[in-house]
Amino acid sequence: MAEPAGPFHVLRTGTGRFLCYCGPDGTVYVTDAMEVWAGELGGCSALGFRCPPEELGAMLRAALVHGAAALSLGPGSATLRLPEEPQCPALALAQLPAAEARSQLQALVFGMAGCIESLERRLEGPSKKAPSGVNFEDS
């Protein structure tokens, strides 16, 4: 399973919080950390709209950053709505089967852990601390 490419955005709905992110293959994922929904950036045509995937990706990122995206859940599916984008107002998401969702969540957790480690290294700069990331001087 490929690690997530980000960016990562938290969507808040009446029923809770969801993490929305993109995979390196252009798939959009939404998860509540128990279930995962996925859809292709070119998937808006399935809802009757035509929009190039790269254009939808830019619109999706902008909508998420500005809090303009809305998520609605249905049985086995979800819809990510971009109400401010009349050309591509929605992206259909399918709920992943349990085994695939577990694999995707595992890739997400370890991908984010890798991002955190990288950021920590960049913030520390050149250092002679233990390579494990544990600072024994603070013990």
Structural notes for this entry:
It is globular and about 50 Å long. The protein starts with 7 loop residues before the first strand and ends in a 15-residue tail after the last helix. It has a seven-stranded antiparallel β-sheet. 29% of the residues lie in helices and 28% in strands. The relative contact order is 0.17. It has one domain (8-124). By secondary structure, it is an alpha+beta fold. The longest helix is centred in the C-terminal third of the chain and has 27 residues, at 98-124. It has two helices and seven strands.
Provide the low-confidence segments as ranges. Answer: none
Order of helices and strands: EEEEHEEEH
As laid out across the biggest beta sheet, the strand order is 1-2-3-4-7-6-5
Characterize the biggest β-sheet. 7 strands, antiparallel
Question: What value does the Rg take, in angstroms?
Answer: 18 Å
Q: Give a count of the beta strands, DSSP E runs of length 2 or more.
A: 7
How does the helix and strand content classify structurally? alpha+beta
Mean model confidence by pLDDT: 79
Brief account:
By secondary structure, the chain is α+β, with helices and mostly antiparallel strands. It has helices at 53-65, 98-124; strands spanning 8-13, 16-22, 27-31, 36-40, 70-74, 77-81, 90-95. Strands 1-2-3-4-7-6-5 form a seven-stranded antiparallel sheet.
